[in-house]
Amino acid sequence: MKKLITSFLQRSIAVMLAAFFISSCQKSASELLSAATAEQDATTMKSATPATPNFNLEVILRGMDNAFGLVKFRQDNDIDKIITLGVWVRDLQPNHEYKLQRAVDTNLDGNCTSTAWLTLGAGLQPLSVFTDETGTGRADLFRSLAAVASGTTFDIHFQVIDVANATVVLTSDCYQFTVR
Question: Theoretical Cys-Cys bridge with 114: which of 30, 94, 103, 158, CB 3.0 to 4.6 Å?
Answer without folding.
Answer: 103
